[in-house]
Amino acid sequence: MSKLYEDFLRTLDEEIEKSSPEHREQIKILFLQAWYNTFPDNSIAQFTKKFKHIRTFSRAIKYEASKILGRTFKQIKMGVRV
User: Fold this and answer.
1) 36 contacts 52 by C-beta, under 8 angstroms
2) For a designed S-S bond to 15, which of 26, 30, 35, 68 qualifies (C-beta 3.0 to 4.6 A apart)?
3) pLDDT in the model for residue 82
4) 5 and 42 in contact (C-beta within 8 Å)?
């Protein structure tokens, strides 16, 4: 697993922990499904693609998860730039 992918997953986990407690478990399950579908490729692009195709969650959960993913990308981008 690449260092960037490890940082991505670590940052994603940190952002999930900051999410609202009422949605946190469902968001974790959503991201776990996306992660499971990318294994063994371990690619951020593949993770994002699989995330977009998951349709079994409510709009509110997908919206919250999308915000978390956006914050994660922003933090990863800032970390790479430094």
Assistant:
1) no
2) 68
3) 40
4) yes
Report residue 32 as tokens: 């776990």
Query: Ramachandran region of residue 73, left (φ > 0), alpha (ψ -120 to 50) or beta?
Result: alpha
Q: Which residue has the tokens 């991505």?
A: 8
Q: Which pLDDT does position 39 carry in this prediction?
A: 80
Residue 7's contacts (CB-CB under 8 Å, 6 or more residues apart) are 76, 79
